[in-house]
Amino acid sequence: MCNAFRLKTPIAQIALDMERLGLPLVFPGGATPNDWPELEMTRPTDVLPVFRPLDPRAPAAGLQLANKRWWMVPYFHRGDTKAWKAMCTNARAESVATAPTYKGAFARRRCLVPADAYYEWTGEKSRKTRWRFERPDGDWWSFAGLWDRAETTEGPLESFAIVTTAAGPDSRRVHDRQPVILEKPGFARWLDLSADVTPLLAPSPEGSLICEQG
Question: Looking at residue 83, what DSSP letter applies?
């Protein structure tokens, strides 16, 4: 599971990094990078920034920075948002291409979810220990994300989920699952709907994450 993460890296720095990758960010309306504050701790149902292609057939044409709810409600849901009870914050890599809730988004609506740390907890409910996972160099990454649009009774809702996989060697002592972490060279491939992205849906290699309490 991944139900909390951090994004303290300034969006302005992320935009520069994306430009160097040939994936320029496009900000909605008159927004600027300063309109996105640091996120020390995110939670399911928070509205958070994700990056999606302006043209799904050509990610290099630019990525839109869009705010979406974390807890995906699929396109086929037509009731109240709260009536969708399934907790769809995470999509399992092993079944994401076939599960009814996620297969449409996996095939047509992939996105990047920027982050620079994620959290897991161990222990009993009243005495839990929080563990933080981040890169040794402190750099940011993107989670492999999916987004969808549901026509709810409250109006259109765009929301996203993070793909998870088996835990890698740096994280399995805390949890048996981890989010799929995309390094920068894999961003364009994840967004390319014609590409085989199976190799990206793998645990993080040993030494790529550090785990600290707190």
Answer: G
Q: Over the range 53-84, which residues count as b (16 or more CB within 10 Å of their CB) and which as e?
A: beeeeebeebbebbebbbbbbbeebeeebeeb
Lookup result for tokens 């060697």: 169
pLDDT at 57 over 80: no
Class of domain 5-213: alpha beta
Distance of CA 189 to the CA centre of its chain: 15
Task: Count H helices and E strands in the chain, helices first.
Answer: 3, 13
**Residues 42, 31 contacting (CB under 8 angstroms):** no
The full set of domain ranges for the chain reads 5-213
- What is the widest separation between alpha-carbon atoms in the chain? 49
Contacts of 85 (CB under 8 A, 6+ apart): none
* Half-sphere CA count of 90, side-chain side, radius 13 A: 17
Q: How many residues are given for the chain?
A: 214
Per the CB < 8 A criterion, the answer to whether 34 and 49 are in contact is no
Assess contact for 159 and 175: CB atoms under 8 A. no
Phi and psi dihedrals of 33, rounded to 5?
-55, -25
Instruction: State the first-to-last Cα distance of the chain, in angstroms, to the nearest integer.
Output: 18
Task: Summarize pLDDT for 93-106 with one digit per residue, the tens.
Answer: 999 999 999 999 99
- Residue 142, CA distances (Å) to 3, 4, 9, 153, 187 in order: 15, 14, 12, 32, 8
Beta pairing, strands 141-152 & 129-134:
unpaired
Stated pTM of the model: 0.96
